[in-house]
Structure formats: C-alpha cells, structure tokens
Amino acid sequence: MSQAPYGPGPAAPSAWPPQGPPPSSGGPSRLPTIIAIVIALIAVAVAIAAWFRPAPKAETPATKTYSEQEIADAKKAVCDAFEQVSKTVNTAGGKSGGNPTDSFIVAVNTRMALATSSSFMTAQLAANPATPDDLAHAVRNLADRYQEIAMNQLADATTSDLEPLATAADAQTADIEKACG
Predict the structure, then answer these.
(1) DSSP 3-state assignment of 28?
(2) Nearest-angstrom CA–CA distance, 111 and 7
(3) Which residues have C-beta within 8 Å of that of residue 127, sequence separation ≥ 6?
(4) Which of 97, 93, 132, 128 is nearest to 111 (CA)?
C-alpha cells in the first residue's frame, strides 16, 4: 500500500505573473541604444571636422597713422632730447683732469653720460611713436653706439678699439642733425 507523503507536495505552477516575454513584444526596446550610438557618431564626426578645420587667421593690427601735428610734435621732442644729450656728452667728454684722480672722475662721468644719454634717447623714442622713421632710425643707432662705447670703456678697450665706434657715433650725430635741421 502506498501511502501519501506527509507535508506539502510538489507545487503547481501559478498562472500569475506570466513567465517569459509577452506574446506581442519582440523583447526589450533597442531604441535608446540606437539613439545613443547615433549621437556618439555625430559627436565623433563634429570633432573630426573641428580638428581639420583651418585655424582662424590672426588679424593684423592696422598701422597707426599720425597727423602732421603729431609727427611735428614727436620730431620736436626727439630733436630737443638729442640737443640735451649732445650737450651732456660734450660737457662730460670735454673735461680733463690734471692728476690721476681727476682723470678717473672724468672717465667715469663720460661713461655715465653715454649710458644715461642712450637710455634717455631710447625712452624719448618710445614716448613719441610718431617720430619720422629716418630720425628714429638714426637716434636708435646713436643710442646703440653710445652703449657700445660705454661698455668698451668699462672693459678698458684701447683707443684703436674705440675709434670705429666713435666714428659711427659721429655719422649718426650728423644724420640726426640733418633730420632735425
């Protein structure tokens, strides 16, 4: 004889909730995945296009044009500065010393006059950008020669080393006098 087991028996399948996909659906929707891939492809295409796009050309600043009055004022200021520099250098270089101490003081003053005059002329050019090109070029060259002479004097250069620099400075002085005349 067979006897029924004690306790619950095998469970019968329940009817709710239904197991598996609903009969009318083809599975989970793939639409969000497709949209994400399309957006990613568009972003990559835009990035590649931006990478190969030529860089914008830098705008060249327009050259400032100056009125005749501005040019005349700048020329006067630079020519006045040159006159002051000429007096300073000539005064410092025109002194002489009777003893070694005085000679040393004259040499130091001359070097200081050259270096200060060079800086002063350069500052005047910077403050007066409307200075005519020929005058500005000659003043810059003279300022450079003054610096070279001062540096060579500080290095105890010989007179033969200083002569070509002094000749070049004299030529620039003549050019400035002509432009200021």
Answers:
(1) coil
(2) 120
(3) 77
(4) 93
